[in-house]
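Aim 2 progress. For DUF1874 domain-containing protein, the working sequence is reproduced below.
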Amino acid sequence: MTEILLLNALPLNAISQGEVVIKARRISPEEARRIIEGKQLRSFIGHEATANALSILLGVNVPTNRANATLTKGSEALIIVLVQRLPEGQVIRSVEEVLRFFQLWHVKVE
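Predicted structure tokens for this construct:
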């Protein structure tokens, strides 16, 4: 079964091989759901609020995990990127709210 890593950044120090090609494209929540369908997910999302936002977008439970990810040739990841800091105390509850503050990216390492 194909594994997809769930990240909140693309840490270049996580690449375990000397030279790779990284293909990244911004995607919609609908496309993200199609990409993860039938695949094993492994979360490397360290903050609960970010994990909750990704859970809302994907429609699956995304647990927190503060471990370091390792990317190798053949790795595939969905990355949720914060583009605007949330106001203090704001709780996100809908896809529309998440998309105001985050972007989703699909990444393949070749």
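The radius of gyration is 14 Å. This observation will guide construct design in the next reporting period.
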